[in-house]
Amino acid sequence: MENSIRPTAKSKRIDLLDVYRGFALLGIFVVNIVIMNSTFLNQDEFAKQWTSGIDQFAERVLQLFFYTKFFPIFSLLFGLGISMQALKLKAKNKLSFSFFGRRMFFLFLIGVGHILFLWSGDVVHLYALLGLFVTLLLSRSNKIILFLSGFFLLFPFYDEVLFYLFGKMNFDPGRFLSGFDGAEVNRVINHGSYLEGLKLRALEYMANLPMLLGFLAPLALSMFLLGLYLGKNRIYDSLESYITKIRTPMLILGLITNVYRILFLFVLPDYGMYSNDLLRPYFIKAMVLSDVFMGLFYLWIIGWLWYNTKLKFLLKPLRHAGRMALTNYLMQSVIGLLLFSSVGFSLYETMSPSQTLSVATAVFAFQVLYSKLWLSYFKYGPMEWLWRSLTYKKALPITRSSKKEIPEAKEGAL
């Protein structure tokens, strides 16, 4: 069966899904550039200096509209893409675990290269590992998939589980950056050699494993499974009617989550219970859930505007960047490396919140234009083409002059 797998024939793309991917890319970079500008090790101290009105406003915009909202969107779309591709292969009796294994293996290698050579905050390698796991659940019932999605999202004790497991393994992630402080990290990034930067990225990755495994991985897995559920039920074939159907619950959800997020950010900090050791973890968990639901609300409102208003023309350009999601995601890290490290302009810890927000928006606008130009000559982005070619074990045609079939035209994974 493995040898019978071939790229699928050309079919009509679903533009709205590409718009969603483009929108997610914008939000991901707006958040990531803040971390590229100042790592977690020194971020709180660095942020204290930005007290101007415009920077305070930019920080509120980031808190209210960006933090923890776009990673869930990106993850859901990845899970949806896996299910879309798998269902097409299954319908043709060509579904093969080894095919997905190879596909995720090469994505994992791309992610590892991203960590070492560009930026330690990669999620592609995580997507590859979790994506392989999710493919094992394709044949499970909708109830099981939804239950697991809810479980991984709501389970409140990841920190305790990780603390226990790390203790049993005598593993202390904090030791990897024990020889670094904010000043030393600044020196390495701004003035150190590329080799020093590579070493620092590896150490940062190891030090950040608790966040990766205790926060990002469960959240990604939950959204993967939700995407898998939506894909299995072919939601992409009736997006317009589905978006109309869930209008009322989504509006209620958006209202409730926004009320709580405003209370958490601007009201609760003035009360003692906000700092209570027993209550604070639950306040934070509720905030994370509110941000996740806000991300889902973003998808709904974009879909509603797409189908019901004349604003579609404003959203359409996002689809160009979305069709090259993997290429643009990695390109953002290349640009970040050039902006902030010694191999480029050495701007690490020099940009204010308003400046990082402006730069991220400008870079994404460039990516939209670049993607549109690229796709006028080529069928896929360069990294998408490389990943597909490795998956199918042959160099696939990439130029638009080719008369051969286009692989995986409806595929949603990245």
Automatic annotation (TrEMBL):
Keywords: Membrane, Transmembrane, Transmembrane helix
Keyword set includes NADP: no
Highest taxon above the source species: Bacteria
Coiled coil: none
Stretches assigned to the DUF418 domain: 230-394
Residue ranges of the TM segments: 20-41, 61-87, 99-117, 123-139, 146-166, 209-230, 250-268, 288-307, 328-348, 354-375
Keyword hit for Transmembrane helix: yes
Protein name from the UniProt record: DUF418 domain-containing protein
